[in-house]
Amino acid sequence: MTWTELVMAAAPIQGDQPAVSDVRTGEVLSYSAFMRRVTRAAAGLRRLGLRYGDHVLVNVPLGATLPVAVHSVAWAGGVSVLRSYGAARMMITQRHYDPAAARVEQVFSFQPVAGAKPFAELVGERGLEFGPLAGPAVCLDGGRTFDHDELASDLRRLAARLVIGKDDVVINAVSESFRGLRVIDLAMMSGAHVVVAHEPSLVGCRVLAEERRATLVVAPYDLARRLLGDPMLRVVDERAVVSSLGL
After folding, report:
1. Which residues, 6+ apart, have CB-to-CB distance to 168 below 8 Å?
2. Cβ contacts of 232-238, under 8 Å, gap ≥ 24
3. Three-state DSSP state, 205
4. Residue 56 · residue 92 · CB < 8 Å
5. Which of 81, 107, 147, 172 is the most exposed place for a label (fewest CB within 10 A)?
6. Alpha carbon distance 141, 23 (integer Å)
7. Are strands 136-139 and 79-81 parallel, antiparallel or unpaired?
8. Global pTM value
9. Secondary structure element (H or E) that encloses residue 35, with its range
10. Which regions of the chain are under pLDDT 50?
11. The pLDDT value given to residue 142
12. pLDDT digits (tens, 9 = 90+) for 107-132
């Protein structure tokens, strides 16, 4: 399986079960909605001219829309560049677009913004059946690029090491978008439910864990260390989800 196929693998079984809950916006993304939006938006990107290897700026905060944006680009054969500026074929943003900073041909936004088309316009009636088997997939702001094989292989290693199951509820309290995306990828691969915290704090994470009956929290080292002690809550340092990628 490719990287995005691994993330979508649980969708046929999990169906309308929640995949990602975004505390900041209140949005809940189900497994079936994720698979539908990714494959159909990928078809839309291809229809509007995205070619294999084309760069797409992705300026979307960690939450329920980030995995949709990144995996739509990946499934279409493009490369997600996780920043808001520079030259690229297209851009996907949450709500901010500066035409002086982003030199792109087309812009799609999850929320209304001047100069951009709604992301929903990409989501047609038919999805793209097959994604790419190999090639570059994600480029970080610092210039590091990861390909599909690298991301998929690392995801399998993470799954074997961290052991997340379909009944787990994971609090995603990480400090950076790519790390947060890896937590979402890992949890969805296993059929778990990810709850993305907003400006996480010690008290906030404890309250959120109790409200959502969380079984696992992934957080920065200082916060993770202070969360230790609850026998019902596994705590993982966020560095564990990217260390094998050399980050």
Report:
1. 187, 190, 192, 193, 215, 216
2. 233/209, 236/162, 238/173, 238/174, 238/175, 238/176, 238/179, 238/183
3. helix
4. yes
5. 147
6. 25
7. parallel
8. 0.95
9. helix 31-47
10. none
11. 66
12. 999 999 999 999 999 999 999 999 98
Q: How far apart are CA 18 and CA 14, in angstroms?
A: 8
CA distances from 18 to 78, 111, 159, 244 (A): 27, 22, 19, 28
Residue 137 burial by Cβ neighbours in a 10 Å radius (0-12, 13-18, 19+): buried
What pLDDT is attached to residue 231? 87
Run of H or E residues at 108: strand 106-109
CA distance 242 to 231: 25
Distance from chain centroid for Cα 13: 20
User: Residue 191 and residue 134: Cα distance in Å, rounded?
Assistant: 24
Which residue, among 159, 234, 99, 96, has the nearest Cα to 88 in the 3D structure?
Answer: 99
User: What is residue 25's three-state secondary structure?
Assistant: coil
SS3 per-residue string spanning 139-181: ECCCCCEEEHHHHHHHHHHHHHHHCCCCCCEEEECCCCHHHHH
Rounded to 5 degrees, what angle do the CA atoms 152, 78, 83 make? 90
The C-alpha atoms of residue 47 and residue 40 are separated, in whole angstroms, by 10
Residue type, 214: A
